[in-house]
Amino acid sequence: MLQYSEVLFRCRRPVRSHLLHHSPSHDLGSPMSDRADVPTLLPARMLNEAVYCERLFYLEWVQGRFVHNADTAKGCSTHSRVDRAGGRLAQMDDKPQVARSVTLSSEQIGVIATIDLVESGETVRPVDYKKGTAPDIPEGAYEPERVQVCLQGLLLREAGYPCESGVLYFAGSRKRVEIPFDEALISRTYAAIDRARQLAAREQPPQPLVDSPKCPRCSLVGLCLPDETNTLAARQGHQPARRLIPTDEAAQPLYVTTQGAYVGISSGRIEIRKDQEKLASTRLIDVSQICLYGNVQVSSQVFRAVFRESVPVCFFSYGGWFQGLAEGLPSKHVDLRRRQLMASLRDELSTAAAFVEGKIRNCRTLLRRNIRSASGSGTDALSSLKKLAQQARECSTAGQLLGVEGAAARMYFTDFPKMLSDTARTSYAQAGPLLRSRRPPLDPLNCLLSYLYALLAKDLTATCYSVGLDPYVGLFHRPRFGRPALALDLMEEFRPLIADSVAISVINNGEVGKEDFIHRSAGVALTDSGRRTVLRAYERRLSTEVRHPTFGYTVTYRRVLEVQARLIAAYLLGEIANYTPFRTR
User: Fold this and answer.
1) Same domain assignment for residues 322 and 268
2) Structural domain for 146, as ranges
3) What is the DSSP letter of 10?
């Protein structure tokens, strides 16, 4: 008598010879068919993905990347009953039995499967649950589902059970569709296994599908970026890139600035208390980050919960310096980090130049849009910045590039006060050029910029982690003293568009004033109320929608940060030839 999921069948039948042969007709682009790191057993669910979309299979199984969407969450709910192991598989002389969540494997076929339901009587039939409705096609179901249930039937045969057909149960239409295991389907299943293992052996994912109807509802579309990658690789033709990702994330950062506060969790809600008084409460699913300023305590239950949901916890000093980040296990995308390190060691100047050029052009755009005619036209600076942006692309050494970046920064901050209103320039004593001062900032304007740069560095560090990149291995900034070099690389093009823009806005609109700063012997810091005001303005800016200059669709700045980080990853993986910075016009 065979019990449910504890039983793991390991069959000893001779392996089919064609499974060991990689057909030359499969041109995978330098496959590594003899790689020893391809797992022995291929999950049946991954075979479904390989037949449906080869790139989806590679991202999910080889690179270990997965995110839920509404469809996958609904699928988990549909499987909730059959995922609970129970029942048994009967022998031939037993009465009919039903077993749930039965795990079978075969080293000879090279697959493993957990079958939702197995009906056993005179014959044995696997039943695979699907959340959707049964398609109105002659075959009764699409090929990926038929191949998956056929594989389950082959595993049952390997275990010694007669199995001539399987069943697909579509929960949406409450319909059972019987799938006979004929020779054509069996041959297709073995061919799919062979193809999946070849895909797993290669070093790069397959190209994205072009303008495919499969992409919009794929849960990995935000990781794959099919239209964006195809556009930059010139595979899209004249077809514009579709915005397949949401404009913005539903979850937002949670900032805790009250000193002595305690962050806990209860019934799926993050609760902030001080002296037994509840200050705030929000659902964990609505939180994308937890940002702690100064002396704020967090329970271990909160850490376990946020790590499970891939929500980072960011630590700042009381004055606003970004000091660290806690997250769960690192990304499984080891190949990306390996390639990132190799690119950093090669000192690739073209990518570093792209960061610098993007920064200079965006600085120029901000000056052009905001400089006030009463304080000077600024045409000399605009003309010089345009020339410096062109020179950045022509630099042949890292020293030349640093020189161009430094010259552009001096020119930009010289004219920076001209973007302030006359009242603000008088109030902030900024009649002349802005001289940058940092640790500590010596005046309110430098304090404001440093605080906003720390927020932006925090967001891009968290974004790098979420994409699978190492934020401390840069391509322009050299990794030293623990600074997040890659986050600072990406930050260059966004400093003027996000941080500097917020600083100008809150000053000119009167949202912050002299009363929002504390003058100490060593420098200037924001007050609690001033910090909260700047945080609101910063989050408001990240939620501002902007038209992406490369792809043409509208997204928020918060989403743009993620898109650009994923473009860096695509470049490092060799999917696109160059990194294209985000440049507004």
Assistant:
1) yes
2) 2-203
3) B
Whether 188 and 279 share a structural domain: no
381 part of a folded domain: yes
- Tell me: cis bond preceding 246? Omega within 30 of 0 counts: no
pTM equals 0.78
Q: Cα dihedral sign for 400, 404, 406, 410?
A: positive
Amino acid identity of residue 465, one-letter, is Y
How many angstroms separate the CA atoms of 112 and 5, rounded? 12
Q: Please report, for the domain that includes residue 342, its CATH number.
A: 1.20.120.920
Structural domain ending residue among the three candidates 146, 174, 203? 203
Phi/psi of residue 457, each to 5°?
Answer: -65, -40
Query: Is the domain of 134 the same as that of 99?
Result: yes
CA 94 vs. chain centroid, Å, equals: 51
Same domain, 367 and 272: no
Distance CA 390, CA 403 (A): 13
Residue 16's pLDDT is what? Answer: 36
Is 220 a domain residue?
no
pLDDT in the model for residue 79 = 46
Residue 579: inside a domain, yes or no?
no
Quickly list DSSP for 165-177. EEEEEETTTTEEE
Can you give the CATH number for the domain in which 305 is found?
3.100.10.20
163 and 20 both lie in a single domain = yes
Residue 37's pLDDT is what?
A: 67
Is residue 181 within 8 Å of 174, Cβ to Cβ? no
In this structure, what token pair is assigned to residue 32? 């590594």
316 pairs with which residues across the strands? Answer: 293, 322
Q: How many domains is the chain partitioned into structurally? A: 3
Closest CA to 571 of 461, 514, 489, 494: 489
User: Residue holding tokens 């082959």?
Assistant: 154
Q: Extract the residue ranges of the chain whose pLDDT is less than 70.
A: 1-37, 66-96, 236-238, 248, 372-379, 428-433, 437, 481-482
Cβ–Cβ under 8 Å, residues 113 and 156: no
Q: What is the pLDDT of residue 568?
A: 93
Q: Check: CB of residue 192 under 8 Å from CB of residue 48.
A: no
CATH number of the domain within which 190 lies: 3.90.320
- At residue 349's C-alpha, the angle toward residues 345 and 354, to 5°, is 125
Same domain for 74 and 119, yes or no, is: yes
What pLDDT, on a 0 to 100 scale, did the predictor assign at position 430?
61
Q: What is the rounded distance in angstroms from the CA atom of residue 179 to the CA atom of residue 149?
A: 8
271 shares its domain with 398: no
pLDDT, residue 379, reads 67
Those residues whose C-beta lies under 8 Å from the C-beta of residue 517, and which sit 6 or more positions away, are: 444, 447, 524, 525, 526, 527, 530
CA distances from 232 to 149, 164, 225, 575 (A): 38, 48, 11, 9
